[in-house]
Design a protein that fits this description.
By secondary structure, this protein is an alpha/beta fold. It has one domain (about 1-270): Alpha/Beta hydrolase fold, catalytic domain (Rossmann fold, 3-Layer(aba) Sandwich), CATH 3.40.50. The chain has helices spanning about 1-10, 50, 80-90, 105-115, 140-160, 160-175, 190-200, 205-210, 230-235, 255-265, 270-275; strands at about 20-25, 30-35, 55-60, 100-105, 120-125, 215-220, 240-245. The termini are far apart.
Length: about 280
């Protein structure tokens, strides 16, 4: 039975589900914002109010997270996530290229989307991107050991459900991260498979290299999910501009939100011409 189900999926791939549009506010050049793993569009709560006077800001919930659907047969690969983003973008019937902003997992998906749909993007902004390469391909032993530690930690989180949920719940209550951090029965499958299939197994560096539009990378100096070695790889690419925010961790806190708004607003004239 499983064999024939697989054959049907290959011959007749299911239509990508539409994602929940959590907010659509403002007028002007379009910005689409994509949140990270175990989160929702609430990620951009400090960003959208600063932009909606000059931009149309559209925040979406990723497949399996927030109020978006979580199909029983979904495997939450980067291809499935991007297909749902693409279907949702088509449903919006936009008449001009837009700025795409992705945070954490959302930045990896945004890079793949931009690589696959170059004519739809006017600018790509990656926020706190957890970019990794296979440890065996890293020459620097310190960086190799650090990336290897991340991979083992992610595997531990996937294989220890009770620990992961309890830790996430404690962090959410301790740091008042309601709606921003959510690891629960509701999204556990999406969390585990997205972690395994999109973050642990990724081709983000090659995706970034193939993107045709300018890319801005905004990240905190205290980001606990970023390795210096991989950031050095992308900062050498000619179409990538790096923006480091002091005293900010992985989350889009007020300090990082202000810098993100500055980066977007600095390119307002270019975006307005594109739209």
């Amino acid at each position: 039975m499983g064999f024939w189900r697989t054959i049907r999926r290959v011959l007749f791939p299911p239509r990508a589900p539409l994602l929940n549009i959590a907010s659509d506010v403002g007028e002007g050049p379009v910005i689409i914002l994509v949140h990270g793993i175990a989160s929702s569009a609430a990620t951009f709560a400090h960003v959208v109010p600063q932009l909606s006077d000059n931009y149309r800001c559209i925040s979406i919930d990723l497949l399996g997270f927030g109020d978006s659907p979580s199909p029983e047969d979904a495997t939450f690969t980067i291809e499935e996530h991007v297909a749902s983003i693409a279907a949702t973008v088509r449903s919006l019937k936009l008449n001009a290229p837009f700025i795409l902003v992705g945070h954490s997992l959302g930045s990896l998906l945004a890079a793949r989307f931009a690589a696959m749909h170059p004519n739809q993007i006017s600018r790509l902004i990656l926020v706190s991107p957890p970019i990794y390469v296979p440890p065996r391909s890293i020459g620097d032993p310190i960086v190799r050991a650090r990336v290897g530690a991340y991979m083992r930690a992610y595997e531990f989180l996937r294989l220890n459900k009770d620990f992961t949920m309890a830790t996430a719940d404690t962090l959410r209550r301790l740091f008042q991260l309601d709606d921003i951090l959510d690891v629960s029965e509701h999204n556990w499958r999406a969390f585990v498979l997205s972690l395994k299939n999109c973050i642990e197994q990724q081709t983000t560096i090659s995706d970034i290299a193939s993107v045709r539009v300018p890319i801005d990378v905004v990240y905190g100096s205290l980001d606990q999910f970023i390795t210096p070695g991989t950031m050095r790889i992308i900062e050498q690419m000619r179409h990538v501009t790096m923006h480091k925010v002091d005293a900010n961790d992985h989350l889009v806190r007020k300090r990082l939100a202000r810098r993100l708004v500055e980066v977007i607003s600095a390119n307002r004239e270019v975006s307005a011409k594109a739209n």
